[in-house]
Amino acid sequence: MALLSPFFIWDSMKHYKKSRIYLYSLLSLLLLLGGEIIYLKSNNSYDSEQHKQRLAYLELVALPDLAISSETRSIRNRSLSDSFSIFNEGPEIRDFFPASFVYSPSDILKKQPSRITIEK
Amino acid sequence: MKSNLFEFAIHSLLRRGAKNIFITIIFTLLIFVLSSVFLITGALKNELLGTLEALPEVIVQKIIAGKQKDIEVQRSDQILQIPGVEDAIPRVWGYYYFEPQGANFSIIGIELYENQYKQVLSDIAVQFDDKLSSDTPSMIIGSGVYEALLSSYYEDFFLFVKPDGDSKKVTIGGVFKASTQLESSDSIVMSSELVREIFDLDEQYATDIVVKIANPKEIPTIALKINQLYPDTRVVTKDDIRVSYQNIFDYKSGIFLAFFILAIFTFFIIIYDKASGLSSEEKKEIGILKAIGWKIEDILNVKFYEALIVSGTAFIVAIALSIAYVFLLEAPLLKDIFMGYSILKPDFKLPFTLNIQILALIFFITVPIYIAATIIPSWRAATLEANEVIR
Question: Which residues of B touch A115 (CB under 8 A)?
């Protein structure tokens, strides 16, 4: 156990050149990065079965784009919108729906988000 | 000799430890933010482009007075006559505004009772067989829709309000599996007749026509032929959709980068400050080294090592941190920029993708600039006479 104590490690490091300590820590950092990538590759990627299911779904509905925003019709399936659609259907409009822009509208000023007033 | 110079460079960095640690931390943060944005964009773009192959080759929309209108179903028969067209399917779909949640559901009509669709649906959805009976209209919904309905106490069915004010009760027949969540979260799939009833669509009309083409080389020609056959249509090809994806992400990451430019400029000002002159202490050090017989080459070597250690370490740490932030922690805060502040937010994991080109780009806009900003002023000082520099 004494071999693992921080004092012992610090003491033994003194005998090494600082460049060697640096290179060892750089190497361990690279190993950590490599390990992280291998872990994510095996755990965070879709397996072929899941990919097949997604393709099957898309083939079924045949609609493009991701379901990542749902307030405005211009964002969902925006690749099917066109530039001359009515005001709130085109993705080229000035953003006013919360989903279509970086900022969230203030919920302090107005409890109701803008889309309610527009849709009604 | 070279390894001794490297050792000297490390000692020299440690002598001004606080300053160098500060620069490394700032540098790490900048590269971290930059690479996180690129990683999120890359993952989402990969997600979109990876599913592009499953989409139909051509989508035909009818445009009247600049607005999309319903297209005549019989046009699909004419389109089917064009040589090279494998299939032309009139499709019914639309958005249904769900007021309690302030969200739009995408309702898609399919021929639910055809055997091939039944097989596909059983593969991609968890079906509630006990709630289904052949005589009640049913639908398969995305998980986002399911949660939204549950929060409004619709557990087994939903009442759609038709354009004439009547309501239509539809049973929830199943929920799409989590693997399709990123595509299906806000979707409702039901039979075409039901969609027609809910949207009050005439039998003669469809929302658009989906055209399948076997040979991808024929797509532009067939698209042109469809356009000539029906000049009032807009023909969207798979390639148009690909370009549109590119635009969406260029736009979003562009907005972010516009903000980021401020940070980059601040950093470049620091580097410029570093480049425009060394501190008198550093100059003195160079002068002394020259006076005791160091060559210009050796001094530049030491400075190169110093800059490489600071920027290289910052780069590797930042990349490791940003990969962990984006793919392990699911990019809190930053993901919202690309997701929007959506109501039916799908709870999905960003699939892991690592684009070496992007990493190389980040490397080349950060590390070499820092190294140059360190070496150039040192070279200027090192080419002067030793006594002049010390003075």
Answer: 102
B161 has pLDDT over 80 = yes
pLDDT along chain A (120 residues), means of 10: 55 69 91 92 79 88 81 73 58 53 50 44
Cβ(A62)–Cβ(B61) below 8 Å = no
pLDDT for residue A100: 55
Beta bridge partners of B71: B206
- Verify whether the Cβ–Cβ distance A19 to B10 is below 8 Å: yes
Domain range summary for chain A, segments of one domain joined by +: 18-62, 70-119
- % of chain B surpassing 90 pLDDT: 32
- Residue B391: partners with Cβ closer than 8 Å, 6 or more residues away: none
What mean pLDDT is predicted for residues B244-253? 74
CB-based contact, B341 to chain A, within 8 Å: yes
Q: Do A22 and B10 touch (CB under 8 A)?
A: yes
Q: Is B284 on the interface with A (CB under 8 A)?
A: no
Residue spans per domain, chain B: 2-50+244-390, 71-206
Nearest in space to B182 (alpha carbons), one of A99, A111, A26, A76: A76
Is the dihedral angle over the CA atoms B124, B127, B132, B138 positive or is it negative?
negative
Q: Which of B177, B236, B320 sits opposite A36 (nearest CB)?
A: B320
Contacts of B236 in chain A (CB under 8 A): 79-80
